[in-house]
Amino acid sequence: MARYHVCEEDDVPIGKVKAYKAGGRTVAIFHLDDGFYSTQNDCSHLFAPLHKGTIIDGSQIECPYHQTRFDIRTGAVMCWADHPLLDWIRAKKALKTYPVTVEAGQVFVEL
């Protein structure tokens, strides 16, 4: 795994998400009450940009397109959008998650 500097700690307020480039891909960086987390930025349902979604219950991200919800800490599917045709195309799939560290106010993600 390679380590990438993505932002400063103050760039993402608590309860927010932003997208950053790291290692040739875009990741979502979440700042929750208990720290920073990172997932792939594309929803595994229909590839919507998760950084444009809504954080629900302080620990889930809701896709801005079809309301699929994922646990930010684990990537697990919490609520899969029920669209029969779309579900046939894209089966239920968890998000990839990436380790995040904060050192001297700098946020790093490992991919």
What's the SSE blueprint?
Blueprint: E1 3-8, E2 16-22, E3 25-32, E4 35-40, E5 54-56, E6 60-62, E7 69-71, E8 77-79, H1 84-89, E9 97-98, E10 100-103, E11 106-110
Strand-pairing-aware structural class = mainly beta
* Beta-strand content: over 45%
Query: Low-confidence parts, pLDDT < 50 over ≥5 residues?
Result: none
CATH homology-level superfamily? Rieske [2Fe-2S] iron-sulphur domain
Q: How many structural domains are formed by the residues? A: 1
Q: What is the rounded Rg?
A: 14 Å
Stated plainly, the CATH topology is called Rieske Iron-sulfur Protein
Secondary-structure arrangement, i.e. CATH architecture: 3-layer Sandwich
Written as H for each helix and E for each strand, in order along the chain, the element string is EEEEEEEEHEEE
The percentage helix is under 10%
| Count of DSSP-assigned helices | 1
The average pLDDT value, as a whole number, equals 93
- The termini sit apart by 5 Å
Strand order of the largest sheet: 2-3-4-9
**Which descriptor suits the 3D outline?**
globular
Number of strands: 11
| Largest sheet features | 4 strands, antiparallel
Give an overview in words.
By secondary structure, the protein is mainly β. The chain has one domain (3-102): Rieske [2Fe-2S] iron-sulphur domain (Rieske Iron-sulfur Protein, 3-layer Sandwich), CATH 2.102.10.10. It is 5% helix and 45% strand. It has one helix at residues 84-89; strands spanning 3-8, 16-22, 25-32, 35-40, 54-56, 60-62, 69-71, 77-79, 97-98, 100-103, 106-110. The strands form three sheets. The protein has a four-stranded antiparallel beta sheet with strand order 2-3-4-9, with no helix packed on it. The protein has a four-stranded antiparallel beta sheet with strand order 5-6-7-8, with no helix packed on it. Strand 2 and strand 3 form a beta hairpin. The longest helix is centred in the last third of the chain and has 6 residues, at 84-89. It is globular and about 45 Å long. The protein starts with a strand and ends with a strand.
